[in-house]
C-alpha cells in the first residue's frame, strides 16, 4: 500500500546510507539518489539509470519520492511569489519566493501554525496544528527549484515562514543537511538562516549540531515589553537568550554575526528610547540588526511605524556602530510579507481570535 511506503525526499545522505544498507546495497547508492532527486529534480525511480532494474523495482515496492502538493500561487507586482502548499494531513502551509538583485531567497515553513503566539504574527494568531516532516520541509526547496524550472534557482533559504523551527528540531536539521550537501543544493552555511523566537535550550543544542546562520526574533529590549510581544520570553528572558547567542557564536569558526530581527510597531517599540535600550543590551554581542516595519493582518490592532520613526531608529543604531538594515517590505499585496503567513489549518490548538494589545500602551 502507498501509505506504507517510505518517502525518501526528506532523507539526508546519512539516512539514505542506512536505508540502502537495510536493502543490502552499498552506501554509494545514497549519493546517487540524492543527486537524482535534489540536483536533477527527478522523482521517478525508473528514470534513475545508474540503478539496475532489480534495484529500481525494489525501490518502487518500498519507497516513494513525493513532494507536497502546490494548491495555488500568487505573485505580486515586484515578483514575490507565495505558494499555498498542502500537507499529508490536509492542512496547508505557505512559503514565499523573494527575488532580489543578486540572489533568490526562499522563505520556508517548519510548522503548520505556531504555538508561541507572538502578537505581531498572523501565524501565531491561528494557533498550532502540526510539525512538518523533513520531506515537507525540503519539499518546499524542491518545489521552488524544480516545479518552477523557468525561475532562477534558489540561492538562499530562510526558516522565517510559519512556525518555530527549533520546536521541530530534528526534521529541520535533516533538511538543512540536504540543503548543504554538495550533491544536492550545495548551499553554504551563510546562505541558510534559522530564525527563532528564543528557545534557549535548542539554541544551545543547535550550536553543537550545525553552523548555519542564526537570527533572533527579538523585537523588544526589556523583558516587560518582550513578555507581551514574544510571550516565550516569560520562559527564556532576554539575558538567557543573549547568553545562548554568545554560546552559539563561540562554537563557530571565523567571524560570524547573529542577526537581530526587530519589528517596528507604531507607538509600541519604535522610539529613540527603545533604540537606546536595544543598543545597550546588544553591546557585547557580535550582531547585525534587521529592522522590519510591521505588516498588518486581520485581527491585530498594531500599526506600522511612521517612516520618520523608522529612519530615526535606524540612524540612531548606525551612529552607535551597529550594522543596521531596513527590510524592504515585499509581498504585502499578497499577504506574503513578514508576519502575514497563515496557510489553512485543520486541527489547531491554542488558537485565538481577535488579538488585544491595549495592555501595552
UniProtKB/TrEMBL annotation:
[4Fe-4S] cluster binds at residues 114, 118, 121. Residues 100-333 form the Radical SAM core domain. S-adenosyl-L-methionine binds at residues 163-164, 195, 217-219, 295. It comes from the Bacteria. Binds 1 [4Fe-4S] cluster. The cluster is coordinated with 3 cysteines and an exchangeable S-adenosyl-L-methionine. Specifically methylates position 2 of adenine 2503 in 23S rRNA and position 2 of adenine 37 in tRNAs. m2A2503 modification seems to play a crucial role in the proofreading step occurring at the peptidyl transferase center and thus would serve to optimize ribosomal fidelity. Reaction proceeds by a ping-pong mechanism involving intermediate methylation of a conserved cysteine residue. This is Dual-specificity RNA methyltransferase RlmN. It comes from SAR86 cluster bacterium. The gene is rlmN.
Amino acid at each position: 500500500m502507498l501509505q506504507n511506503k517510505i518517502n525518501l525526499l526528506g532523507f539526508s545522505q546519512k539516512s539514505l546510507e542506512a536505508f540502502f544498507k537495510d536493502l543490502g546495497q552499498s552506501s554509494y547508492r545514497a549519493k546517487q539518489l540524492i543527486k537524482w532527486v535534489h540536483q536533477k529534480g527527478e522523482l521517478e525511480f525508473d528514470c534513475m539509470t545508474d540503478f539496475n532494474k532489480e534495484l529500481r523495482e525494489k525501490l518502487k515496492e518500498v519507497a516513494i519520492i513525493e513532494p507536497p502538493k502546490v494548491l495555488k500561487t500568487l505573485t505580486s507586482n515586484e515578483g514575490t511569489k507565495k505558494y499555498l502548499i498542502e500537507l499529508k494531513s490536509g492542512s496547508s502551509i505557505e512559503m514565499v519566493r523573494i527575488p532580489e538583485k543578486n540572489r533568490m531567497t526562499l522563505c520556508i515553513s517548519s510548522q503548520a501554525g505556531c504555538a508561541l503566539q507572538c502578537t505581531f504574527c498572523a501565524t501565531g494568531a491561528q494557533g498550532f496544528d502540526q510539525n512538518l516532516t523533513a520531506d515537507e520541509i525540503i519539499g518546499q526547496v524542491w518545489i521552488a527549484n524544480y516545479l518552477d524550472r523557468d525561475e532562477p534557482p534558489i540561492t538562499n533559504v530562510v526558516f522565517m515562514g510559519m512556525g518555530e523551527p527549533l520546536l521541530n528540531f530534528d526534521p529541520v536539521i535533516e533538511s538543512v543537511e540536504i540543503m548543504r550537501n554538495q550533491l544536492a543544493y550545495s548551499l553554504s552555511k551563510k546562505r541558510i538562516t534559522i530564525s527563532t523566537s528564543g528557545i534557549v535550550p535548542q539554541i544551545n543544542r543547535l550550536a553543537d549540531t550545525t553552523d548555519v546562520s542564526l537570527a533572533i526574533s527579538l523585537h523588544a529590549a526589556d523583558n516587560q515589553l518582550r513578555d507581551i510581544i514574544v510571550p516565550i520570553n516569560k520562559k527564556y528572558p532576554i539575558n538567557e537568550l543573549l547568553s545562548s547567542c554568545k554560546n552559539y557564536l563561540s562554537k563557530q569558526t571565523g567571524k560570524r554575526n547573529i542577526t537581530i530581527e526587530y519589528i517596528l510597531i507604531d507607538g509600541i517599540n519604535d522610539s529613540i528610547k527603545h533604540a537606546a535600550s536595544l543598543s545597550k543590551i546588544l553591546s557585547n554581542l557580535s550582531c547585525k540588526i534587521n529592522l522590519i516595519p510591521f505588516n498588518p493582518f486581520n485581527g491585530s490592532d498594531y500599526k506600522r511605524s511612521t517612516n520618520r520613526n523608522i529612519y530615526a531608529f535606524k540612524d540612531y543604531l548606525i551612529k552607535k556602530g551597529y550594522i543596521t538594515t531596513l527590510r524592504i517590505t515585499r509581498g504585502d499585496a499578497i499577504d506574503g510579507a513578514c508576519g502575514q503567513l497563515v496557510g489553512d489549518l485543520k486541527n489547531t490548538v491554542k488558537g485565538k481570535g481577535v488579538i488585544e494589545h491595549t495592555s501595552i500602551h
